Amino acid sequence: MSSNSNAETIIHALQAGDSQVIEELYAHHREDFFRWASHRFEGTRQDFEDAWQDSIIAFYQQVNQGKLLHLRHEVRTWLYAVGYKRLLNNNRKMKRILWKDQIDDALFTIDFEQETVDPEKIKFLQAALKSMSSQCRELLVARYYQNLGIEEIQQSWNLKNANTTSATLARCLGRLKDCFKKTFTTFPNG
């Protein structure tokens, strides 16, 4: 039986309401997907399980909504592609979170009241913050001076969600860093 006819058989069975097909599909390729994913991504078994479940659910929904009527490849290939995208997105998010955590750690360890900090840089920081929008200034002060968490900032400023809050903070921090780069490249000890 070719992969096309196998895929069509599975799709037709799902359209006819045979839920046993999706359970068999889930169980049949699950461990292979875990092995495949573990060689390509850093993650826990639960990460791979979540990606696999998302793949199965997406396949089921696409077939039931009439959006997926035939495949040019095996069903397994389609499922792996969806799982791959899920794991890739998770991996990207984790790298952003780790990167943000490293920046946060670095900024939290700076003590602007130390005598070793260049007074010119402190004055410039104050001026740069004053030149920013009030929202950016308040968000940066809340995050890095008052040490508020993302969720606390989100609730205090009535922002949509944690991702919106993080993205807004990242943009504001980027603007502040750009101001520093432009100004302090001219200083001898930069």
From TrEMBL:
Q: Which GO terms describe its molecular function?
A: DNA binding; sigma factor activity
List the Gene3D superfamilies hit by this protein, alphabetically.
Answer: 1.10.1740.10, Winged helix-like DNA-binding domain superfamily/Winged helix DNA-binding domain
Name the source's superkingdom: Bacteria
Which InterPro entries would you find in this protein's record? RNA_pol_sigma-70-like (IPR039425), RNA_pol_sigma-70_dom (IPR014284), RNA_pol_sigma_r2 (IPR013325), RNA_pol_sigma_r3/r4-like (IPR013324), WH-like_DNA-bd_sf (IPR036388)
Cite the entry's keywords alphabetically.
Answer: DNA-binding, Sigma factor, Transcription, Transcription regulation
Q: Name one GO biological process term.
A: DNA-templated transcription initiation
Task: Please give the PANTHER family that the UniProt record associates with this protein.
Answer: RNA POLYMERASE ECF-TYPE SIGMA FACTO, RNA POLYMERASE SIGMA FACTOR HI_1459-RELATED
Which family does the similarity line name? Answer: Belongs to the sigma-70 factor family. ECF subfamily.
Q: What is this protein called?
A: RNA polymerase, sigma-24 subunit, ECF subfamily
* Species whose genome carries this gene: Haliscomenobacter hydrossis (strain ATCC 27775 / DSM 1100 / LMG 10767 / O)
